Amino acid sequence: MSPFFVMSLLFGLIFGQTASLCAPSEYTIHVEKRECAYCLAINTTICAGFCMTRDSNGKKLLLKSALSQNVCTYKEMQYRTALIPGCPHHTIPYYSYPVAVSCKCGKCNTDYSDCVRERVRTNYCTKPQKLCNL
Predict the structure, then answer these.
(1) Domains, the chain
(2) How many CB atoms are closer than 10 A to CB 22?
(3) How far apart are CA 43 and CA 47, in angstroms?
(4) Residue 47: which of 19, 78, 16 has the closest Cα?
(5) How far is CA 98 from each of CA 3, 4, 59, 103, rounded to the nearest angstrom?
(6) Which pLDDT score, from 0 to 100, does residue 17 have?
């Protein structure tokens, strides 16, 4: 192996986290309940971006700690609650949602994150829309 390759590999392993572009990003959630008259559009922040990932093709040559599949996930978050307008009295009109305060590259925690990238579902309203800026 050439000295340049070895130095590049070491630099990438040591400073890989600094090259990550994981940060809170603006996002709009559309929330509906069948019983309610309106759809609520909630402006919030989610964690999104690029995290350095090490390919496991060379796993026999590298230490296990050097191999990781990092995702952009919450470092710190808060929950807020919004009131969905136009709900009848027998319906609970509240919706709680996470707000990303800060983000990090790390292992995906299934307690509060969807770790499988599925097809993007449509995020829209089928009822008249109200905007919620919190």
Answers:
(1) 18-54+68-131 (2.10.90.10)
(2) 22
(3) 14
(4) 78
(5) 47, 44, 36, 13
(6) 45
C-alpha closest to that of 70 among 19, 13, 109, 108: 108
48: left (phi over 0), alpha (psi -120 to 50) or beta: beta
Give tens-digit pLDDT for 67-106: 567 888 889 999 999 999 899 999 999 999 999 999 999 8
pLDDT 10s digits, 6-15? 455 455 545 5
Instruction: Give the whole-angstrom CA distance, residue 130 versus residue 107.
Output: 36
Q: What is the pTM of this model?
A: 0.64
Pairing label, strands 129-133, 94-106: unpaired
Strand 39-50 versus strand 21-31 pairing type: antiparallel
Tokens of 74: 């919450």
The burial of 40, by beta-carbon neighbours within 10 Å (0-12 exposed, 13-18 middle, 19 or more buried), is given as buried
As given in the structure block, the two tokens for residue 81 are: 């609650």
pLDDT of 16 above 80: no
pLDDT band of 114, cuts 50, 70, 90: low
